[in-house]
Amino acid sequence: MKFQGLYTAIVTPFAGNRVDEEAFRMLVEAQIAAGVAGIVAVGTTGESPTLTVKEHLRVIELAVESAAGRIQVIAGTGANSTAEAIHMTQEAEKMGVDGTLQVCPYYNKPSQNGVYAHFKAIADATRLPIMLYSIPGRCGIEISVETISRLAKDCPHIVCVKEAGGNVDRVNQLMQVVPENFTVLCGDDGLTVPFMACGASGLVSVTSNLVPGIMNSIVKAGLNQDMGEMLSLQKTFYPLMKGLMTLDSNPVPIKAALAMRGDIQPGIRLPLVPLAEEKEAQLSALLQRFNIL
Prior knowledge:
The chain has helices at 21-34, 53-67, 82-95, 112-124, 136-139, 145-154, 169-177, 192-197, 212-223, 227-246, 252-261, 277-289; strands at 5-9, 14-15, 18-19, 38-41, 72-76, 99-103, 130-134, 158-163, 183-186, 202-205. The chain is an alpha/beta fold. The longest helix has 20 residues, at 227-246. The chain is globular and about 50 Å long.
């Protein structure tokens, strides 16, 4: 499988303290209607740190059931414990997901040899296509270009990396060393244009929870090498992308925006808290500016 196009890092809606399964199904239907390539379930945006293991696996199961083969389902099953990541990945594989997102081990800060060994052990334990996830701002370390190159050559199942470190030159560096069938996806909505101009094959998006059609148009323009269209759309919608990522920690703003529009009930799990009143007013004004409310 080749990971290419727009993937929505889908939120996990709550009703009280439980996962709102009906709202989740409706969110998936909206993504399918917009023509996205796939969804990433239970990643950072899906609040993976605060879901129980049972909830985590249920959301993945819901994603597979809701997608019903119409779009790809990528399961966020990474962990800073290699054994846990293997267990979650194997459980997701049984459910019929199309691939797995594996975050760089966080908090324990392994060396690059440890990072390599972690991902290779996971690859050896599954037949699923693997999307690596380098996000140093949350993990404390990144997956080095050299480590990605080693993994791409040594592990046939490792076929993609989601780059969320904000470094466009990393795309240039990766294009020099990874196999031809290995893809890079942008992990920052606001950097889609420069990433795709340097060789990235798509985007894992937060904003597309709210406006999947717009984000899909940006990515498709990039894939079609229509730089004029891509730049025009990016310029128009950049303030929305920026606001959704800077008013508070992700996924607080995007879930607040979806709740304002009536797509989900308000709800975020501790230690994240709802937007402050001032920030909520700013978000409301931003959504009204783009005719979302």
